[in-house]
Amino acid sequence: MAGIPMVRDVRSEQPLVVEHSTWFATITHPRRHLVATLCVWGWFVAVLAGADSVPQLAPALEATAATGAAVWHFAMMRRYRNASRHSSPPGPMS
Fold it and tell me: Cβ(40)–Cβ(72) under 8 Å?
């Protein structure tokens, strides 16, 4: 069989892994996700750093920061899971 050329199957060169959104892409794209991410985590860090300066408001500030971070995480995880569920494998080449 040394003289017979091997025919390559073009379909086998396509990746078998379905490309879907990464976590970083989910929290930064579209732009409103990036803005929400920066706002939520900016507030979270600001409250943790500055809660000692206003001790009477510290519990309320920390509760709002923790609630905001939890809601953000839930919403982004939902978007991430929906993106990976709705991605479809590449179809056959035409």
Answer: yes
CB–CB of 36/72 below 8 Å?
yes
Residue pair 26/33 in contact (Cβ under 8 Å)? The answer is: yes
Dist. CA 67–CA 50, nearest whole Å: 17
Say how far apart CA 52 and CA 58 lie, in whole Å. 7
In 3D, which of 20, 26, 23 has the Cα closest to residue 87? 20
Is 14 in contact with 43 (CB distance < 8 Å)? Answer: no
* Residues found in the chain: 94
Higher pLDDT pick, 70 / 18: 70
pLDDT at 9: 56
